[in-house]
Specification:
Layout lengths: L2 H20 L5 E3 L12 E3 L1 H7 L3 E5 L1 H10 L7 E5 L9 E2 L3 H9 L3 E15 L2 E8 L2 E6 L4 E7 L2 E8 L1 E5 L7 H4 L11 E7 L9 E4 L4 E7 L3 E5 L4 E3 L5 E16 L4 H8 L4
Parallel strand pairs: 1-2, 3-4, 4-5
Antiparallel strand pairs: 6-7, 6-17, 8-11, 8-15, 9-10, 9-14, 11-12, 12-13, 14-17, 15-16
Length: 275
C-alpha cells in the first residue's frame, strides 16, 4: 500500500471510530488495525474476541479482507458489514464517502441480513489428513504452467477424468470471482449449490456442472506437475499425484449485513457494467 493509500486508510478508520464513539457506542478495534487509528483510549482486542463479543463487525478493505475476516469469524455469531476500499467489492456494500450515514441507518435497524454458505475442504495423502480449511468463495486446484489430470466424483459417483489447467469448486458467493472468469455460471447467493468449473479444459466439451450443496465432491489428483490447491486465493499448498481432496458444505455460515435498499441484481449490474 503506497503512502497516499495509507494516509486515506488512516483518515477513514479514524473518522469512523470517532463517529461511532460519539454516539456512545462501545468500539473495539482489532490489534493490528489500531495502528491506522489516530484516536486515544480505544479498546484493542483480537479478531476472535471481537467476533464473540460484538453486535456488529465492520470490515474496511476489499473483498479479500472480507473473505479473510469471514473465515476467521466463522465460529462466532457476529454479522459483518463491509466498507469498500478495494476495486470491485462484491462483498463490501458501503463506500467511504457515505459510510457514516449508512452505518447509522444499519445501527437504527435499517438493514438486510443474509447468510452465505462455506465450503469445507480436506486434503488426504496416503490415507492421512495433511490439510483442511474452509472457503467462502472457492477451492481452486490448478497448475501454473502445465496441464494436470483430475478425476472427479460426486456423492461417490464417477463424473469425469479431465486434463485441464485446473478446477474451481465454488459457492454461490464465489461465482462472481474466479469461477466467473473461467466461464462458470453466476449463482444467486440464496441458492444452496456448489459449482464445479474446469479451467481451460483440454477437451472443450467439459463444461461447468452445478450440484446440490448437500453433495460431497471428491477430486483425485491423477497427474500433478506443479499442482497446488488454494482457498479463496489466500494460501497455496502443493499437491501430489494420488492426493484426495474432499469438498462439502461446511456446518458454519457467514452472516452479512446489507443496507435496507440493497439489491443483488443492482450490485451485479453496477459491478459488471451491464446495461
Amino acid at each position: 500500500m503506497d503512502e497516499s493509500a495509507l494516509h486515506h486508510m488512516r483518515e477513514d478508520l479514524t473518522r469512523l471510530t470517532r463517529h461511532l464513539r460519539s454516539h456512545g457506542l462501545h468500539v473495539c478495534v482489532e490489534e493490528r488495525t489500531a495502528n491506522f487509528v489516530d484516536e486515544e483510549g480505544i479498546q484493542l482486542s483480537t479478531l476472535e474476541h471481537i467476533g464473540r463479543k460484538s453486535d456488529l463487525v465492520i470490515v474496511m478493505g476489499g473483498d479479500g479482507t472480507m473473505l479473510s475476516v469471514g473465515r476467521a469469524l466463522r465460529d462466532t455469531p457476529a454479522p459483518l458489514v463491509g466498507i469498500n476500499r478495494g476495486r470491485l467489492g462484491f462483498l463490501t456494500d458501503l463506500q467511504t464517502d457515505n459510510m457514516l450515514g449508512e452505518i447509522d441507518k444499519i445501527l437504527q435497524g435499517e438493514y438486510q441480513l443474509e447468510s452465505r454458505m462455506l465450503l469445507q475442504s480436506e486434503v488426504t495423502r496416503a490415507g492421512k489428513y495433511i490439510h483442511q480449511t474452509v472457503a467462502l468463495n472457492d477451492v481452486v486446484i490448478k497448475s501454473a504452467f502445465r496441464l494436470i489430470e483430475l478425476e472427479v466424483h460426486v456423492d461417490g459417483l464417477f463424473v469425469s477424468q479431465q486434463r485441464s489447467d485446473g478446477l474451481i469448486l465454488t459457492t454461490p458467493t464465489g461465482t462472481t470471482a474466479y469461477g466467473l472468469s473461467a466461464g462458470g455460471p453466476i449463482m444467486h447467493p440464496d441458492l444452496a449449490a456448489i459449482s464445479i468449473v474446469p479451467i481451460s479444459p483440454h477437451t472443450l466439451s467439459y463444461r461447468p456442472i452445478t450440484v446440490p450443496a448437500k453433495s460431497v465432491i471428491e477430486v483425485i489428483v491423477v497427474h500433478a506437475a506443479d499442482a497446488q490447491i488454494s482457498f479463496d486465493g489466500q494460501g497455496q499448498y502443493p499437491l501430489m499425484a494420488g492426493d484426495h481432496i474432499r469438498i462439502a458444505r461446511a456446518e458454519q455460515e457467514i452472516r452479512l449485513v446489507h443496507p435496507k435498499d440493497y439489491c443483488y441484481f443492482d450490485m451485479l449490474r453496477n459491478k459488471l457494467n451491464w446495461g
